[in-house]
Backbone:
């Protein structure tokens, strides 16, 4: 009996991501889970919204398969991003995080769905609302929070902050609106140059969609058939400006003109995943770039200095929360199809909160970078150089 | 009388005379061959053989993949070049002139120069931005600006300004091999000028270190510091002054950032007099920086007179020849300034 309980427990641990083998069930104990593993539906095919298409004969499929394992993984990812962003909000209000802080809560399905459709060897670049992607691209939440609090344990050793976090095949975090788009096409050029069948996902917002450099980039990407998936995260507001006040055409998926496009429900992680897969396949087939518009929503204002209610109503925000929250949507889908139990989700939530609290604890107790680090990392692979300090007697050293 | 690379009179044994244009071409050809990650992109670099023919023959040899013609989209293609560098390639991004780099300056500064620092060393950007800089002939105000001071202001960039063919070849090879963003300021009027090239420069591994100035001519009475085309003007002025018994030490900066202040200071400690010569505008310029650095350093106490700056006139560049000629330092301006500095 004990062996069987341990086996079931370990199996559940593998699925939920807990430490396998760390759980032992004492003799005579009751198993906390009331259902047998075999009770849950292992896989369900869901109907997803049809995408609006531009210059495309066919679009992504209107059905998406979801396994229990995938569902729990997507849930975990989105919930983790949500809790990290809320923790960042808290730390910012306590003045432990300073400067710019652009939060992603509400948009989690975009980051989770995209990552589910590409591989770690693909590339991704985004703008400044980047914490979610930093996580999905592999940086730990400790390193993310410690970067926000400006400590030496941050992913950029405290030198970058919210908008400048990097990882292998993740090029930030970019502060200048729109500048990341030509960069992304350049990364795609490198993929094409090397012939490695990789793509670059290049994200921008509805505000950046009006930048001239995007159109220069679209032209070159189309001309040279770069394997670049351009993704516009349309969260309906560019800072305080609603899309109707900024764009003569709010059909962002058509703004690539000669580049095919699709408009996707960005609140549904499965829609995002299927569309991204479709888009990446398009690029990998050598058909050139593609533009994807994700219709999404941010709960917070533009940044922590924007309450977010002067240009939109609280009712609107509340409506999205209650009807379209990406995390709730996934959970409801899984529960109503018996793919997981409410207790499981609750346990995951508790676990995630704890992880985030631990990471925040690290982020608030880790020391700030040492002053000796001030001038380092100016040049790569370079002999040490002298850097002038604030006055001529201050001679500082810079190493690579 | 032609000078050899040491500033002394040409000896009987002849080296081939190579124009600055060909030296740049050789540098790119050798680096393209050496490292398949290197590629060139810019307007007219491929099928047109280069707006100023600097990339002549390269497209024929290396093809579309390595030599890329771009549309007239500086901000876009500079960003694409920076992105390619971030992904591990080694692009050479040509601006037809550096005046057009202003369209793209955000990519040079914010995307290229600052990234290694912001990422605390996670993301290097091995890119070269090159093209003609400064005044040409009769191209008027929008096409004649010198950008040395603007780019040299920014940490995270290296800024190189070659004068002769040897400089051009050795420094461009170093720039391409450097893992950091390098702004490589050429000069259109120098492209067609032939110089003797040393034996060493024939080697495919010949490089000139970035950050080290060169003494083109030794002298004891006054130090002349310059970069790019005006190094030649300084040598001409020095030849005239020598007849009057004034021996000038001429320093070719070669690199604007990081500046080799030590070479300047060593020279000033010998000559006690300093004159800077540049084509750019005076305010906040290269000469201004040299003045500040010399004042802050060990050479200040060796100065017998304040430093003199010879610069372009503080106006947008006019078109008419007589006006244009009077907008830039002439040899007689350098001679006059040296004598004033020496109080002779």
Residues:
């Amino acid at each position: 009996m004990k062996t069987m309980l341990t086996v079931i427990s370990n199996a559940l641990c593998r699925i939920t991501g807990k430490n396998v083998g760390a759980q032992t069930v004492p003799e005579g104990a009751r198993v906390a889970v009331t259902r047998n593993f075999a009770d849950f539906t292992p896989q369900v095919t869901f109907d997803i919204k049809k995408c609006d298409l531009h210059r495309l004969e066919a679009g992504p499929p209107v059905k998406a398969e979801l396994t229990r394992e995938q569902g729990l993984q997507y849930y975990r990812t989105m919930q983790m991003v949500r809790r990290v962003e809320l923790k960042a909000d808290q730390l910012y209000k306590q003045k432990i995080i300073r400067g710019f802080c652009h939060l992603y809560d509400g948009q989690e399905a975009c980051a989770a769905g995209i990552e589910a459709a590409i591989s770690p060897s693909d590339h991704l670049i985004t703008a400044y609302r980047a914490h979610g992607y930093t996580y999905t691209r592999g940086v730990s939440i400790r390193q993310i929070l410690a970067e926000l609090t400006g400590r030496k344990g941050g992913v950029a050793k405290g030198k970058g902050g919210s908008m400048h976090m990097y990882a292998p095949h993740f090029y930030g975090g970019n502060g200048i609106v729109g500048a990341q788009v030509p960069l992304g096409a350049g990364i795609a050029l490198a993929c094409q140059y090397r012939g490695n069948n990789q793509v670059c996902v290049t994200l921008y917002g509805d505000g950046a969609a009006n930048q001239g450099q995007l159109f220069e980039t679209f032209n070159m990407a189309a001309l040279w058939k770069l394997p670049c998936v351009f993704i516009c995260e349309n969260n309906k507001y560019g800072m305080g400006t609603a899309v109707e006040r900024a764009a003569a055409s709010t059909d962002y998926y058509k703004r690539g003109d000669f580049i095919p496009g699709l408009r996707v429900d960005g609140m549904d992680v499965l829609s995002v995943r299927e569309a991204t897969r479709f888009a990446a396949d398009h690029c990998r087939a050598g058909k050139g770039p593609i533009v994807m518009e994700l219709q999404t929503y941010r709960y917070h204002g533009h940044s922590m200095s924007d309450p977010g209610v002067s240009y939109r109503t609280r009712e609107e925000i509340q409506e999205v929360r209650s009807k379209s929250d990406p995390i709730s949507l996934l959970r409801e889908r899984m529960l109503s199809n018996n793919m997981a139990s409410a207790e499981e989700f609750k346990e995951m939530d508790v676990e995630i909160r704890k992880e985030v609290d631990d990471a925040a604890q690290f982020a608030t107790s880790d020391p700030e970078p040492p002053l000796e680090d001030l001038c380092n990392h100016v040049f790569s692979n370079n002999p040490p150089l002298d850097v002038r300090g604030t006055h001529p007697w201050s001679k500082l050293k810079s190493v690579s | 009388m032609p000078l050899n690379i040491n500033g002394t009179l040409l000896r009987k044994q002849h080296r081939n005379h190579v124009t600055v244009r060909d030296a740049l071409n050789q540098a790119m050809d050798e680096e393209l061959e050496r490292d398949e990650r290197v590629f060139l992109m810019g307007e007219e670099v491929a099928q047109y053989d280069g707006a100023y023919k600097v990339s002549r023959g390269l497209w024929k040899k290396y093809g579309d993949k390595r030599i890329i013609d771009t549309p007239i989209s500086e901000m876009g293609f500079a960003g694409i070049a920076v992105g390619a560098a971030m992904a591990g390639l080694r692009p050479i991004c040509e601006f037809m002139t550096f005046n057009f780099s202003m369209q793209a300056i955000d990519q040079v500064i914010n995307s290229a120069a600052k990234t290694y620092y912001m990422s605390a060393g996670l993301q290097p950007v091995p890119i070269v931005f090159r093209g003609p800089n400064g005044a040409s002939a009769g191209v008027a105000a929008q096409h004649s600006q010198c950008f040395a001071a603007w780019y040299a202001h920014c940490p995270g960039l290296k800024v190189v300004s070659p004068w002769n063919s040897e400089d051009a070849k050795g420094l461009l090879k170093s720039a391409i091999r450097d893992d950091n963003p390098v702004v490589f300021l050429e000069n259109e009027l120098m492209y067609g000028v032939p110089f003797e090239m040393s034996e060493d420069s024939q080697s495919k591994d010949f490089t000139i270190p970035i950050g080290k100035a060169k003494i083109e001519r030794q002298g004891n009475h006054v130090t002349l510091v310059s970069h790019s085309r005006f190094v030649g003007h300084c040598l001409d002025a020095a030849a005239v002054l020598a007849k009057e018994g004034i021996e000038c030490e001429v320093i070719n900066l070669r690199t604007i950032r990081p500046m080799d202040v030590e070479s300047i200071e060593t020279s000033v400690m010998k000559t006690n007099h300093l004159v800077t010569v540049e084509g750019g505008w005076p305010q906040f310029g290269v000469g201004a920086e040299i003045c500040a650095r010399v004042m802050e350093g060990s050479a200040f106490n060796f100065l017998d007179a304040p430093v003199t700056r010879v610069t372009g006139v503080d106006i947008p560049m006019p078109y008419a020849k007589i006006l244009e000629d009077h907008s830039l330092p002439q040899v007689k301006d350098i001679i006059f300034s040296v004598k004033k500095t020496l109080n002779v």
Remarks:
- The longest strand of chain A covers residues 228-234.
- Residues 56 and 62 of chain A are 15 Å apart (CA to CA).
- The mean pLDDT of chain A is 93.
